Amino acid sequence: MTATELERALHLADLSAPAHWHEVIGSTNAVATALADEGAPEWTLVGAGHQTAGRGRLGRTWLDRPGGSLMTSIVVRPAMAIEDLGLLTLLAGAVWAEVATELSGLEVRCTWPNDLLVGEAKVGGVLAESSVTGDQVDWVVIGSGLNLLAPDALEAPAPEAPDSLDARKARGLGAEVDRVALLGGFLSRFASAYRAPAAELATEVIGRWSERSYTLGRIVAAVGTDGVRREGIAVAVDASGRLVLETADGHAAVASDEVRHLR
User: Fold this and answer.
1) CATH 3.40.50.720: does it fit domain 3-211?
2) CB 147 within 8 A of CB 123
3) 35: helix, coil or strand?
4) Terminus of the chain with fewer CB atoms < 10 Å: N or C?
């Protein structure tokens, strides 16, 4: 892509904001968070052809094939409760899955909270980072990476948190997928849902994410930062974006836990 193509994608979504393109960059999220801290306006867009220090969730490293992925980060400044910010990750994943399915002809689905799969092969993911002051959200940066060409490895697992969905089992959406249309479609749909009244956002996100979910109905294990392991059937997401498990001891809501799909 180019800076001009990033601007075209913003235009397709009827958004006006700065666009920053880098052929090689450490991390689009790192640049976008720095811009957000400096006061960058909402919808500021950062894109890259290759990341040398890409980040995944829970300390993992994101790997890409140079020129073979669509890697972007956007800045948003939501007026929403801190505890509800997880909805934005789910919304981003659901929208990417919708647009990627339509443009690639492949069935793309979402895991909770942030991976994109075709079958059981990973094609992308979402990483959201935020800054808050007191009970106010200053900004959220939503980073996304989608493979058009399959890399040798997509995300290196954290040593103490292996995932049953092997990150090395990766594939791409296809080199023929139009990147401008893909990004423009994502920005347009994401912005439309994001701008919905606060009272409607949770219902919108839950419905769209559930429609594209790989996780719901599966047995998963969640290990929290407190070390407590919970196992059960993923049955829903709640109004704050937490995954709800049906366990032997009743229902439990998972927030920032590590979730493994067992079967």
Assistant:
1) no
2) yes
3) helix
4) C
Neighbours of 254 (CB within 10 A): 22
Which pLDDT score, from 0 to 100, does residue 159 have?
A: 40
Region 106-120 average pLDDT:
94
pTM above 0.85, yes or no: yes
| Cα dist from 4 to 16, 18, 20, 21, 244, whole Å | 13, 11, 10, 9, 42
31 and 47 Cβ atoms separated by less than 8 Å: no
Write the DSSP string, 154-187. SEEPPTT---SS-TTSB--S-TTS-HHHHHHHHH
CA distance 197 to 141: 20
| Nearest Cα residue to 29 out of 164, 161, 167, 143 | 143
Instruction: Confirm if 43 and 17 have CB atoms less than 8 A apart.
Output: yes
If you average pLDDT over each of 39-53, 178-192, 215-229, which comes out highest?
A: 178-192
Q: What is the pLDDT of residues 65-80, one digit of tens each?
A: 666 889 999 999 999 9
pLDDT of residue 202 exceeding 90, the answer is yes
| Banded model confidence at residue 224, pLDDT cuts 50, 70, 90 | low
Domain 219-261 has CATH 2.30.30: yes
User: 152 is written with which tokens?
Assistant: 């040798």
Domain ranges of the chain: 3-211, 219-261
Location of structure tokens 């990033």: 6
Q: What is the largest CA-CA distance in the chain?
A: 54
Distance in angstroms (rounded) separating the CA atoms of residues 95 and 2: 23
Total H helices, total E strands in the chain? 5, 15
Q: Report pLDDT digits (tens) over 149-161.
A: 887 544 444 444 3
pLDDT given for residue 83 in this prediction: 92
